[in-house]
Amino acid sequence: MLACSNILDDEPRDMAESGAERPGDDDKDLIQRPDLSDVDTEVRNLREHAQQLLIDKTYLENEVGQLKKRSARLEEELRHLRSPPFIIGNVQDILDDERAIVRSSNGTVFLVSRNLRLREEDLKPGTRVALNQDSLSIIDVLTDAHDPLVAAAEIIDAPEVVYSDLGGLDDQIDRLKDAIELPLMQPEAFTRFGISPPKGVLLCGPPGTGKTMLAKAVANQTKATFLGMVGSELAQKYIGEGGRLVRELFDLARQRAPSIIFIDEIDAIGAKRLDAATSGDREVQRTLMQLLAEMDGFSEVNDVKIIAATNRPELLDEALLRPGRFDRIIEIPLPDEEGRKAILGLHLGKMPLDKKVKVSNVIDQTDGFSGAEIKALCIEAGIRAIKEGRKTVIPDDISEAVDVVRKNRNKPKDSDLVHYG
Q1: What is the pTM of this model?
Q2: What is the distance between the alpha carbons of residues 375 and 168, in angstroms, rounded to a whole number?
Q3: What percentage of the chain exceeds 90 in pLDDT?
Q4: Are 95 and 101 in contact (CB under 8 A)?
Q5: Which residues sit opposite 134 in a β-bridge?
Q6: What is the 3-state secondary structure (H, E, C) of the chain?
Q7: In this structure, are strands 225-230 and 99-104 parallel, antiparallel, or unpaired?
Q8: What domains does the chain contain, in order, with CATH numbers?
Q9: What gap in Å lies between CA 46 and CA 371, rounded to an integer?
Q10: Across-strand partners of 109?
């Protein structure tokens, strides 16, 4: 068998050495050797396809990563939405490393545990904290912030009212400037004379005489921070809420000093204290006592002034009216003849008047009118002239306006009211 294999192996070697070619070799080469250009094209296409697949893979991986982040964020938001709300309270006292006394938002005092991860220096008496709704344990420390009602009291844009817009109040304007603007502009003069500047001014008088406009003029003229509130806003439902608002109002005024606090309709919280009173009256009295305490104060603050206004001064508590709190009580009566002339000059001076209109007659017709009623009279006369298509105001327009304002002054009788049920 070895001999046979050698014979078979030697035959092709001999044929190769002799240079002889086997029949049909050209046909095999045509079949086994494809065109090289086609191969290169196919390889290039495959490479481009592979590159595109890598790009698509990278894009899909990035998109998957973004979707995972978004899913995690949405799950976190959903977890927060499903978590119970927290109660806002204040720390009263710290007993030890694990317990504290807190006062919740409804005024109830609790002995609770606290989060051990909170720093001890952050937990102080008076600190605002978040309490768990079920266990009332301290969860987090909140930043101190003023009540939104107090924060909104700061007037950023100064009113457009100026002292020249107030006719017939020259004496009242001078007294108000002496008590409010002078101590803020020249505090060293009061120190040199060894006297304490006035703390507050009370403006009293019938409705429509210009009390609020005086306060607006002060806010416009002075560079001090102006905080304006209505007395009824300080009368709250829950125990201690009114006093807290008063305390935060004065704290904000001290932070923004020099500042002016204006309390309109102060009789809403400053009425006389009575022995027999309801729970609501007692809460109003607590608010008044907090106001008195803030006005007195243990630390003298000369750059915070108070202006209050009321049309019922007989209702105010005597403790509120004593010197040292409202040092000046400025009464703003109904305008006299000279005052009505000045007010009419302010409003009618801006209107086109017919030559037949005599201001002296209008002054006589408006006897007993307040400044607001005189302004309403001028507006009514202008509306009537515009309605009739005239370019000037004639005497009939003013006479008709006087009648309209005088009718509005009359209070409706019980027989004129419609009763339902």
Answers
A1: 0.63
A2: 13
A3: 6
A4: yes
A5: none
A6: CHHHHHHHHHHHHHHHHCCCCCCCHHHHHHHHCCCHHHHHHHHHHHHHHHHHHHHHHHHHHHHHHHHHHHHHHHHHHHHHHHCCCCEEEEEEEECCCCEEEEEECCCCEEEEEECCCCCHHHCCCCCEEEECCCCCCEEEECCCCCCHHHHCCECCCCCCCCHHHCCCCHHHHHHHHHHHHHHHHCHHHHHHHCCCCCCEEEEECCCCCCHHHHHHHHHHHCCCEEEEEEHHHHCCCCCCHHHHHHHHHHHHHHHCCCEEEEEECHHHCCECCCCCCCHHHHHHHHHHHHHHHHHHCCCCCCCEEEEEEECCHHHECHHHHCCCCCCEEEECCCCCHHHHHHHHHHHHCCCCECCCCCHHHHHHHCCCCCHHHHHHHHHHHHHHHHHCCCCCECHHHHHHHHHHHHHHHCCCCHHHCCCCC
A7: unpaired
A8: 87-145 (2.40.50.140), 150-331 (3.40.50.300), 337-409 (1.10.8.60)
A9: 94
A10: 103
Query: And the tokens for 25?
Result: 């070799």
Q: Which two tokens stand for residue 6?
A: 């050698």
Residue 174 tokens, joined: 């001078």
Place of tokens 């003229």: 221
User: Which tokens go with 289?
Assistant: 């006592």
Neighbours of 118 (CB within 10 A): 15
Dihedral angle computed from the Cα positions of residues 374, 376, 378 and 383, in that order, rounded to the nearest 10 degrees: -170
Q: Are strands 225-230 and 200-204 parallel, antiparallel or unpaired?
A: unpaired
Among residues 350, 352, 362, the alpha carbon closest in space to that of 395 is found at 362
pLDDT digits 0-9 by tens, 366-409? 888 888 888 888 888 889 889 888 888 888 888 888 888 888 87
Measured CA distances, 194 to 125, 197, 257, 302, 365 (Å)? 37, 10, 22, 13, 50
> Per-residue pLDDT averaged across 72-99, rounded?
81
In the chain, what percentage of residues exceed pLDDT 70?
82
Is the separation of the CB atoms in 209 and 334 below 8 Å?
yes
Phi, psi of 323 (to 5 degrees): -60, 145
User: CA angle, 56 as apex, 51 and 57 as ends, to 5°?
Assistant: 95
pLDDT (average), residues 5-33: 49
- Alpha-carbon distances of 16 from 9, 12, 370, 373, rounded to whole Å: 12, 6, 136, 133
Residues ≥6 apart with Cβ < 8 Å to 261: 227, 229, 249, 250, 253, 304, 305, 306, 307
CB 104 within 8 A of CB 130: no
